[in-house]
Every structure is written in C-alpha cells, then in structure tokens.
Amino acid sequence: MTTAADPVARPLLVAEYFGPTLQGEGSSTGKLALFIRLSRCNLSCPGCDTPYTWDWTRFNSRHESRRIATNELRLWVMSQPAKLVVITGGEPMLQQQALVPLVRSLVEDGRRIEIETNGTVIPGPELLDSVTQFNVSPKTATFAGKKVAQSTRINPGALRVFTASGKAIFKFVVSHKEELSEIARYEEEFDLTPLWVMPEGTTRETVLDRMPWLADEAVRRNWNLSTRLHILLWGDQRGR
C-alpha cells in the first residue's frame, strides 16, 4: 500500500495550513482542530469566503498555492496536539486520489479526518473507507449565483453516495429566508440528514443579525443550527 511517506505519493496543491485553532462550523464546532486548505475549486460562488483558492482575476495563483508533499503535511500534523484534522478548500475532492495516502496515514496515527466539500464530486471507495466524516455543503442558487445551473452545483449521484456512506453531515449556508424552501426540497429529494444550516457572513454583525431568524426556522423545520464561531471570535482573519 502506498503511504504518505512513499516517494510515489503525489503532492497536494495547498493554499495554506494552520492551527491549532477551533472548528468554527457544523457538528464539530468548538473542537480543537488543524486545517489543511487545498487550492482550486470547480465552482466560482460570489459568496465564497476563500476566493484566494480559485479566483485568479483577483489573486495570483503562484502566490496563493504551492505543491506540498503529503509526508510534509503528515509530519506537521503529527507535531501538533489536535486530534481533529479538517481538510477544506477550495474543493478538496478535486484532489481525492492524492489525498488517500495522507488520510490513511493520519487515521492510522489516531487522527480524526473531516473533509469539507461542496458535494459535486463523487468520493471513491478508498477515500470513503478512510475519512471519518464528510461535511457536505451543497450550494443554493443564491449562494452560487443565479447564472449557475442547478446541474453544475447539485450532483444527485454524489449526494446519494455521501448519504449512503453514513459518514456525511449536510450543511447549508443561508443568506435569505427564500433559500430555505430550496434546502427543504434537497433534504427531501436526497434524504440529506443530519442537516445543519448556518448564517452566511464574514463579519460578526452579519452572523449575529441572521442567527435569530435562522434559529427559529431551524427549530420549526427540525434542522440543526451552526454558528460561524471563527467569525464571531476573530472576524474574517485568514489562518484562524
């Protein structure tokens, strides 16, 4: 079996890695965590809070990403105390074959691995076997942009694989109440459970303003609610 230390293991295209910090979203909110943020995405959402992973009209790809050997990342993780490792992006599933040896080695070393994904790429069996949890965040029409076709941002086959795996939670970013009926439709069609909603926003004020009405809707619809803890604590700082 190829391991992260094996010279044939492919490097990953990384935007940044940082921690220990706290997981700010979803079912692991508040847990001590390390983050590995991969570069590149297959969507170009106007509401994206990490455009430096894909928007080369505003950012320089040579400055914002570099190839890092999986063993270098493994050694960094093993030098840190946090047991939770969050692999995010961008869209990390675009590099899933190169991720497999890293994820396997970290799981063998006793780390919990969460991969954050937009849910458009079908996970392969090797990654499904190794990952502890997928945090799947499908994009609504509002978040992705009205000009983006549903077939681009919603992949029924991928969502059904994530659901069947028993390793996925589903998390939607919400800006407006009008998005909730769309989320409910996906919940019913693809059996998206457990389901979290959280307020879109990169400032404390925006997050706190949207939390009360979103909390009421979450209770009414039997959904879970997530804040954006890192925004409340540190604002929109990178590396936090």
TrEMBL record:
Gene3D superfamilies: Aldolase class I. It catalyses: 6-carboxy-5,6,7,8-tetrahydropterin + H(+) = 7-carboxy-7-carbaguanine + NH4(+). [4Fe-4S] cluster binds at residues 41, 45, 48. It comes from the Bacteria. Substrate binds at residues 22-24, 37, 88. Mg(2+) binds at residue 50. Its cofactor is [4Fe-4S] cluster; S-adenosyl-L-methionine; Mg(2+). InterPro entries: 7-CO-7-deazaguanine_synth-like, Aldolase_TIM, rSAM, rSAM_sf. It holds the Pfam family Radical_SAM. S-adenosyl-L-methionine binds at residues 90, 137-139. Keywords: 4Fe-4S, Iron, Iron-sulfur, Lyase, Magnesium, Metal-binding, Queuosine biosynthesis, S-adenosyl-L-methionine. Catalyzes the complex heterocyclic radical-mediated conversion of 6-carboxy-5,6,7,8-tetrahydropterin (CPH4) to 7-carboxy-7-deazaguanine (CDG), a step common to the biosynthetic pathways of all 7-deazapurine-containing compounds. Belongs to the radical SAM superfamily. 7-carboxy-7-deazaguanine synthase family. This is 7-carboxy-7-deazaguanine synthase. It comes from Amycolatopsis acididurans.
